[in-house]
Amino acid sequence: MLTECPHCFTVVHPRADGSCPACQLNTRDAQGVNPDRTTVTIGEQSQLPDLCCECGLPARRTVRVRASKPVDGDVPAGRTQSQVASTHSIVSLLLGPLGALVDKLVNGSPSDWNNFWVSIVQCDECATRGAPTPLRADYEHFTMRFIVHRNFQRQFEKLNDSSDGRAG
């Protein structure tokens, strides 16, 4: 039976002894696990509660998180997707059209990339630790799965019709 590992939040078929094939910890043992943390899948059109995704306290500050990957799935050797996207933005900003042309020749055009954004609520205090990072981005359904505070997850599910995060 598929289950979400309480340690690494990966959806897995636990082994016969209950261990997670991803992190090797026991999926039946929640010792040391923060009971306030769970996951939620957020889509481009999802309704968001006025709660911080990190601490679960009231908040209205919205952060847009981008997922980006090359259309063919290949990233230039030795570089991450975010490094390539950041380089493109910086080179284009600094050198204008000439920089964008050079970057296009080296890394491919931005049209060769799949991009989408989702919004998530994060309070100012939690934002000092950085923007939320998705566990997974689903480019087919335009959704991202995040580790969130359980209060955020409960309110999110009340606001959205389906459990996959896409408002229906």
Task: Write up what this structure looks like.
It is a single chain. This protein is about 25% helix and about 25% strand. Strand 1 (about 5) and strand 2 form a beta hairpin. The protein is of the alpha+beta class. It has helices at about 80-105, 125, 150-160; strands spanning about 5, 10, 35-45, 60-70, 115-120, 135-140, 145-150. A three-stranded antiparallel sheet has the order 3-7-6. Strands 1-2 form a two-stranded antiparallel sheet. Strands 4-5 form a two-stranded antiparallel ribbon. The protein has two domains: about 1-35; about 35-70 and about 110-160, no CATH class. The model is unreliable at about 165-168 (pLDDT under 50).
Keywords, separated by commas or semicolons:
alpha+beta, 23% strand, 168 residues, 2 domains, two-stranded antiparallel sheet
How would you concisely characterize the structure shown here?
The protein has 168 residues and is of the alpha+beta class. It is built from 3 helices and 7 strands.
Summarize the amount of helix as a percent range: 10-25%
Low-confidence spans: pLDDT under 50, at least 5 residues? 164-168
Intertermini distance: 27 Å
Q: How many domains is the backbone divided into?
A: 2
Quick one: overall form?
A: globular
Strand content: 15-25%
The number of strands is: 7
Identify the strand order in the major beta sheet.
3-7-6
- Structural class comes to alpha+beta
Query: What order do the SSEs take from the amino end to the carboxyl end, as H and E?
Result: EEEEHEHEEH
